Amino acid sequence: MECCLAQGELIRLEGEKNGVILRCIGGAVWLTCGDSRDYLLTAGRSFALAAGQFAVAEALQAAVCNLAPVHEPCGVTRESERKPAVRFAVC
Predict the structure, then answer these.
(1) What are the domain boundaries of the chain?
(2) CA distance 54 to 63
(3) d(CA 91, CA 88)
(4) Cα–Cα dist 65/42, whole Å
(5) pTM (2 decimals)?
(6) CA–CA separation, 80 vs 70, rounded Å?
(7) Is the dihedral of CA 36, 48, 51, 62 positive or negative?
(8) Is the domain covering 2-90 a CATH 2.40.128.110 domain?
(9) How large is the C-alpha radius of gyration of the chain?
(10) Are the beta carbons of 39 and 31 closer than 8 angstroms?
(11) Which residues, in sequence order, are bridge partners of residue 75?
(12) In this structure, are residues 21 and 85 in contact, taking their beta carbons and an 8 Å threshold?
């Protein structure tokens, strides 16, 4: 699933039962997932959200992101070859 965020727009992500990956296609996204760290995603970077984990993402500038299921531990990765799916909520 692809989503477009305007600068300053927030979304709440849920890892669901299998986890989810947020891939930044363009722009920049600030991500907080409650692990006492924040993550900056720019074009080409992605973040795997573990099953049952929640996060909030904010567009630091207009951004295009892709949301897809994942079966990896929470962390930042370079590549994503996942099929679109998963749900997100606008804050």
Answers:
(1) 2-90
(2) 20
(3) 9
(4) 10
(5) 0.71
(6) 9
(7) positive
(8) no
(9) 11
(10) yes
(11) 48
(12) no
